[in-house]
Hints:
43% helix, ABC transporter substrate-binding protein, globular, Rossmann fold, eight-stranded mixed beta sheet, Peripla_BP_I, single chain, 27 helices
Amino acid sequence: MTGFPDDRAGDFVLDFPTAVAPDYRNRSSLATSPPLFVLRVPESAHPDGVDRVVRELRSALTDNGNLVPLAHLSTEDDSELLSETAGFRLMMGTPRHMTPERFPNFLVMRDLIAFIRGNRDAWRGGPQARELRRHASEQRAQRGGPLAFTRMEGPNPDGLVGFLMRISWLSFVQRLPKWLWARWTSRRVIRRWLGAERIAAGGKNLYRVMDTVGAVWSSQLRNDPEHQEALQQLDQLLFRALLEDLRNPPVGGVLPRRRRRTSRPVILVELPPPARDGSRAAERFLRSVHDASATARPPGPLVVAVGLPSQTLLNDLGDPAEVGFAQAAARLSEKDGPPVLVSFSTEALGKRGLDLRKVAPRRFRFGWTVPAAIMACVSLLVAGTAGGLIARQVLGDRSCVGGTASLASRTAATPTDPKGWYDAAVREIGVQNRRAEKAAADGKTIRTVVAFESSVPKDENETRFDGTIPELRGIAMWQKKLLDITVSNDRVVGLRVDVRPTGASFANAVPEAKRLVAQVRQQAVDKNIPAYSRIVGVLGYAQSRQETRGALEVLGAAGIPAVGTTATADEMSAGSANLSYWPFTPSNSTEARIEADFASGRNIVAAPGSGDGCSPARRALIIESSADLYSRSLADKFRAAFPGGTQVFDFNQDGRFEPGPTTNATSMSSADDLAHALCGALRAEPATVVYWSARARDFTAFIDAMDTQGTCTADDVTVLGGNELTNVALTGAFNDKGWLRLYYSAHRLPATDPRASEKTREFVDAYTAFVKRTTKGADPWVQDGHSAVSYDAFHALSQAVNQARQPNGEVLPQAPVVALRGGVTFDGATGWVSYGQGTNAPPTDKTLVLLRQLSDRTEAVVVCGAYQQGASSREEGPPCSRSR
């Protein structure tokens, strides 16, 4: 169903756009702070009802980019501070020529809070006020601007003169400016707002105040990293700082920055039901909104929460009385006031709704910086040498992520041997199966798992577009290691592997799953079947498709445990699949948020005519295949997370399309037509990234079409894609495309990266030896993540089987499900693997890497998650920290 649910909501639908962006002559209404709105959706309508309401509200606020400052908040991580996410979303999501454009209070408070969370043991050594001040000033210098020059290397001559020069440089160029900035910032923050807060307790110095409260919070977080009281205090303080920034600039006036507020910032919050993942973080944020607003001066943002609030949250919000949408509409223009609680009926959510018109804020021809630039030029002339240093620092910030080296190489694509390599991997699994059967005859406990794969690759193209071969290699490697362990450890259950192809693109996944269910049920009643052939779990389903999703629902209904490999769509866990399916890799929602922040916040798009200058992407051309579950899922989530403008192309060479309700995608089945359309869009806005979520076969056709036409390849074209592109990129298929700047995701670090764990390096050595022993010729996938993912996924399943083993050696068919729900943890080839208790989510903070493909290697440009024990996205900074 589409449209805003019509629960007598006509007045609300009419007044909402006006409350966000009134007529420019009536902009004085923006000087108020509206109340918090909580739109309650029945639990029976979750999550579709929430998605529908949020989608309709977002559609009124966006049109190929945000029309107003907008932050859309959703999370599955209860340790996340959504106030931090809100601040960054508003920073990145402000439309052109609209203020506020600076967030000084939010950024300095975010830096101080990051120090407290990341250095919980520091206060054991004494007060940390000085370290807090140094950390805040260093972070400010890293963001560029007036302090950027303090990070420049000083002179280094020899002798006494050199010593004096170094001392002078250190004192007057590096330390003094930072000290002055820190002192000025402290006075400004304390005087303007923090000094009046209870938490300051009359303190006059920002860093001593944060040192005092940090000592308490750090001890709470040291005892419990998710201590709710500490996280609530941190979140509220961060949102209070954000409110102070959103208050400025004042409405009206003649100064260039003062005339830019033509709309109200909006924050949309998805509120999961109580006890669901992310509910504590969302409710924590709403408490922060309620409590921080009590001391903040207007104007403030419009915060709308959609979902199911707990009774505890409603009590903390003052137990607001429920009102209808007509009353809620009247309160849209209300100044402050208690929270507004409105409920949707199930009937309204089941019918078509009302069209919500788009907001229409006044637009300006140019930014406030145009008139201000005249004053800046005068200042630069006066500044002289200092201005030159700052300018050079700013230019240095345009360096390209991953360097400027070309993808082009004289090296031809690596030849592959599809049938030979596939047969070699299956043959090795057969060898290990015979070992397992012999061990069973010797009295060892042996069981069987089924590995569902796609069809056998027939030619080199299918090999490049499919990860079956490296996945089977990883399965064979873990099976061998597991059976080696069973030789000396009688408690370990050895496993046979039954490899079952399911057709091209998993076309026969559902009937094969039904056949497996029937087989498992027969085994339960037929006592003559050998124990070693009894099936205790499923491994595989490397692609997110409707067929694999349907197969997982069949297995879930039967209670058969399944551990995924590289299927990443959140939708794979829907329905009955959630009963017994554990994904192994980070979900599309996590990946899309990381990639959106990476594209919009890092220098990845080459400037036209520049050999070494890059900038963040202001616009994204999103290529999806709407009929493909993985592609549609990833594209939709990236589009929602990307703060700049977007344009969607629905590309499928087979002509299969399933139009969505809001994307307004242009459908194409010709790679030549797609290349022509993208070239036109790239010429109109060069600071554009091509985001590719379609399959690798279509990507190769598109790249060939772009290269053949050559109409927009004079400058580099930046493409950012998912793990689907890994296999084909590593084979060197694009080695002759010097115009292509290619970034894509992967699920383990290259072994050459210094951050790679010892387990990762050990795996790569073992993989290299395995390939050399079983096949001939060069292998393109030594740095590919498919083999490591299947190796670790099989490890997780085997560990669950071991935990399910009874003292008599029996393994009941559904016992591994219970073991998986209890949590599985180990240090693996892909990094630290830790499944949380009582959840079917991917492993907590699982490794996700963004790679840049170069001519002779891959380079990790972003590394998120627990790639080794102790690593954490929260401490890795953007784009990792805002995405978990």
